[in-house]
Amino acid sequence: MKCAPLNVCQQRFSRGDVRRVLACVTLALCAGCHKPAGLPSTGPIEVTVMTVEPHDTPVDFEFTAQTESSREVQIRARVDGFLDKRVYTEGQLVHTGQTLFLMDPKPFEAALQTAKGQLAQQQARLYVTKANLARVFPLAKQNALSQKDLDDATGNEKQAEAAVIAAQGEVETAQLNLGYTTIKSPLNGLSSFAQQQDGSYVTAAANGLLTTVYQLDPMWVNFSISENELLGYRSQIDRKQLVFPADNDFTVSVILADGTLFPSTGHINFANPAFSTQTGTFLVRASLANPTGSLHPGQFVRARVAGAIRPNAILVPQRAVLQGAKSHFVWVVDKDSKAHQRVVEPGEWHGDDWFITEGLKPGERVVVDGAIRVTADTPLKITGAPRPASQPAGANAPQKEPQQHLASRQSGQTVTQ
């Protein structure tokens, strides 16, 4: 058998094969155009909703604060002399009347003896003048002596009495100076380091500072309120959006640097009426008990001021508030379980919730969980109440904002309107 040329076989095979391939492709495309029977269609989006219910809500305000001793006393030398000895332990608690320093008393003891001697001399002189006056007076009455003699005797007695009073003052001054050589603490508190060492010569005017004692109980907590914050509070009070406690009797608690809450609470005891020209803020001071002395002066803390109330406030979870290109909004569910976009005006954070000042009415339903997947006028499947913020979120649930982002009061999730 004679074979056909190779190019002829390739041509015949290619034409038949092309027809069969095209037929198979056409059948496959046609089959793909029809949806198989029995496959379910995409259902409504599953969400949780909450009903808007206004209620009076207590609110707290937090400020950066610094602790301060309620009584800070500088221990100074009141006389000039040599410092003999420091008799307290630096940095330890000291008590009222406890001796802190001893100065060389010998010069002051000598000065006291001199003053006592001068007092004795003046007292002797007074004795003589009194005796002389006692002799002159009856003789002057009998005109045995002139009136001038009587006046001189009387004047000498008065001068002697004045000299005794002056000498007594010198004695008291010398006794005080001697007492100042023993330097004691005037209060219970925490002692600082010694500014002068043993053997140093100290003068009351130049280098008389010896140490400092800080009273720890009670402790003061100072914080500042800016002018913008104060004006904002006043504006909210005028609009009935904020109510302060009677007599501004706020309760102040302290949050330490590690985030723990100090066990004692206090109250505001001073507010500076004048703004600082350098910072534009005015100082507020609170006092709280510190019986264990765990708070020390100069610590940076957070002051939480409680007692204010927002009347009829509307709160929604943070994850329910979305941010579009121009504004914040939520998804409001109508009676047909369809979502509609509603622009809202958010206020401040409140824990895991957000105050809504405008845009929502009582009784309306707001999408909480699943809001990020909702589109306008789409049917929804309401599965229940919103999940607590502490409960772990699912794969499609929005994540909770970090604490540092909450403080900035910016929105949580951003979507396109």
Automatic annotation (TrEMBL):
Region (Disordered): 380-417
GO cellular component, one term: plasma membrane
Subcellular location: Cell envelope
Biased composition annotated in UniProt, kind: Polar residues: 405-417
Name of this chain's protein: RND family efflux transporter, MFP subunit
Pfam families assigned to the protein according to its UniProt record, in alphabetical order: Beta-barrel_RND, BSH_RND, HH_MFP_RND, RND-MFP_C
Annotated Multidrug resistance protein MdtA-like C-terminal permuted SH3 domain residues: 312-371
Domain Multidrug resistance protein MdtA-like beta-barrel, first and last residues per copy: 218-305
Stretches assigned to the Multidrug resistance protein MdtA-like barrel-sandwich hybrid domain: 71-207
Any one GO biological process: response to antibiotic
